[in-house]
Amino acid sequence: MGKPVELREEIFKSTEAAVELLGYEKPFKTQIELRGRITRDMIEEISRVKKEPEWMTRLRLRSLEFFYKLPTPKWVKGIDAIDLEELLLYVKPDVEMVRDWDDLPPDLREYYDRLGLPEVEKKLLAGLTTVFESETVYAKVKKYLEEKGVVVLPLEVAVSKYPDLVKEYFLRVFPFTEHKFAALHGALWSGGVFVYVPPGVRIREPIESFFLIGRSAEGQFEHSLIVAGEGAEVTWIEGCSAPRLSKYSFHDGMVEAYAHKNAFVKIVTIQNWSRDVINFNNKRGIAEDNARVDWVEGSIGSKMTYVYPSTILKGDYSSTRNTVIQLAKGPVLKDTGSKAIHVGRMTRSKIINKSVSVEGGVNTYRGIIRVVRGAKYATSNVECEAMIFDSMSRAYTYPHNQVDELTATVSHEARTGRLSEAQLFYLQSRGLEEDEAKSLIVLGFLDEIMVELPFEYVNVLSKVIQLEFKKLGGYG
After folding, report:
1. How far apart are CA 422 and CA 332, in angstroms?
2. pLDDT score at 12
């Protein structure tokens, strides 16, 4: 974990006030709110408000047709509790997009200050965009990115400014025909970011987008598109959060990544939605010859989460490493996993999935490894490890391997363990409270994954985990 002693001291110096982050929802003024049955008129209104070109309007309407045609996926449980007609499906806040934190309304700026985003931007990031409700409210990049020709823009801006470039990738990596919720996303998408790194440009500092749901009974459908040209390199961080809400909200986002020949794209997600959010996310990358797409997925919050970072290894010698952590504490469901589709020769995939189930939490790993005929000498290794704290909690593993190439090597390992009472006793005998001891055991269990994150984000994730174990009664 880099610096475990210093990190442990930092964790236990933190007060509950410092990690509480957001508190309860606040009312914000809005310019436009759309709810009710999802109709052609609603979709055209969204497109009109955004001043989109005709091809985007047609794509939205085609997605809407498929949404009504496609059945609900059989592997989804509990989504039927969502009444889409009750949700605000598009919310344009009464806030203009700015490039300076001081230009945001004070109440909204307070949210971001408590999350520490202005400070993280200064220390760590090459660029940052933030989406509040359905629109981008803050966007800024460091000057050297612009000088190198890197494009970091809210996606709705890029659609008009770089239409040909966006059209080449948008909903092509993850088509809206894939399933019902991909089609819903294609019809209603709003907010998100477009990142394009020209050939040969390597960005050492991460670029981040942060998504904030501000109210109950809201749908958020942001879309992020990350493209690395030949030999380029970029790390993109996705942060997600919401205040405690009086009623559920629904998140149906999408991330598409494309790595051209010899490029490297790394996508890191830290998801800490409140327990009133149902989280459905569609994530896929494509890697060309000798390219690499890596995913790091940290799922801490939400009532239900469905997310499966996936990579199509299209080119020869392409590779992917998917690292997923999921914490289900209390009556929550985390259904996550990874997918790797091997198409090129000598392709490699590595999937590491670690889950923690506490106080009745349910974790499910659902993964797919597919090796098509002709993907000669492909190799894939999956490691699933689950820690279960008590008899009320559950962990399940559903791997699916489809191997049509005789030269391929595919392996899957799964381990499930209980909380060690000996470890817990030892830590408590050294003066730690039970909740502190449990959070430290979890951090140790997740150690090899935490090392994938920038140190500042290890600190944030550690604080969030500590807070989870401090909560007594209720799961807000």
Report:
1. 27
2. 28
